[in-house]
C-alpha cells in the first residue's frame, strides 16, 4: 500500500443531518491503532447565547461535495504536520436545537502533544475554511452568523508556528 | 456554466443557481457581468469579503474559467 493510500484510509469524514455518538467515534479511533497512545476528541454544541443575544436554535447550510472535500484536505494537512494515527470528523447540517451536538473532531497519535495540536489545528481550519454557514434563531427572528476575526487569527497562528520536533517532546 | 450561491448571498439574491452561457475569461470579469443584473447583485458581487470557489476549490479573482467549470459565490464560512 502506498503511503498516500495508507494515510487517506486513516481519515474518516462525515457530513450528516443525524446526531452522532461520541463513544462510537472514539472507539473507531481506538481500533487497530495499538501504536497510538493518545486520543484527543472535541465536540462543539449549540449554545444558548451569542454576542449577548439569546439563541433558541441554529440552521446549518453547507456546500455539498466541497464540504467533504475541504474537511478531508484539512485532515490531510494535519496528518502531514503531525504523526497522527487517525482523524475522524463529523459535522452536522440542518436544523439544530439548543445543546445539540454540531461537530466532532477526534485525533489519535503516539503521544499527547501531536493529538492535542492536531485536534486544535483541524478545528481552527474547519471554522475558517470549510463551507458551512450558520443561521441563528432568536425568538421569531433569524440572522446569519458573521465570521469572526478571532477565528481567522486562530487559524493564522498555525501558519507561522513551526511544529516542535517529536524528539523534543515529552512522552 | 453553472454558478451557485450559498448562505446569505443565496438569500439576498433569492437565487440558488444560475446558468451563464459563454462566460467571460476570469472570475473578476464574471463578477462584473453578474453585478449588472440589478442593485442587489451589484452590492453582493462587490462585497469585499465575498468568497469564490471554482470546481469546489477556493480561488481569487484572477482565476480563469471556461464554460464547463462550476463557480460558487458565498460569504465567509461560519461552521464548527
From TrEMBL, chain A:
Q: Which SUPFAM superfamilies match?
A: Molybdopterin synthase subunit MoaE
Keyword Methyltransferase attributed? no
- Reaction equation(s) it catalyzes: 2 [molybdopterin-synthase sulfur-carrier protein]-C-terminal-Gly-aminoethanethioate + cyclic pyranopterin phosphate + H2O = molybdopterin + 2 [molybdopterin-synthase sulfur-carrier protein]-C-terminal Gly-Gly + 2 H(+)
Q: InterPro entries attached here?
A: MoaE_sf (IPR036563), Mopterin_biosynth_MoaE (IPR003448)
Keywords, A to Z? Molybdenum cofactor biosynthesis
Task: Return the CDD domains for the record.
Answer: MoaE
**According to the lineage, what is the superkingdom?**
Bacteria
Gene3D superfamilies in alphabetical order? Molybdopterin biosynthesis MoaE subunit (3.90.1170.40)
Q: Which residues form a coiled coil?
A: none
Q: In which pathway does it act?
A: Cofactor biosynthesis; molybdopterin biosynthesis
Q: Where is this region: Disordered?
A: 144-171
Keyword Hydrolase in the entry? The reply is no
How does the annotation summarize its subunit structure? Answer: Heterotetramer of 2 MoaD subunits and 2 MoaE subunits. Also stable as homodimer. The enzyme changes between these two forms during catalysis.
Q: What is this protein called?
A: Molybdopterin synthase catalytic subunit
Automatic annotation (TrEMBL), chain B:
List the source organism: Aliiglaciecola litoralis
What is the protein name given in its UniProt record? Molybdopterin synthase sulfur carrier subunit
Where along the sequence do coiled-coil regions lie?
none
Checking SUPFAM superfamilies in the record gives: MoaD/ThiS (SSF54285)
Tell me the domain of life.
Answer: Bacteria
Family matches, as Gene3D superfamilies: 3.10.20.30
Which gene is this protein's source?
moaD_1
Question: Could you tell me which Pfam families the record lists for this protein?
Answer: ThiS (PF02597)
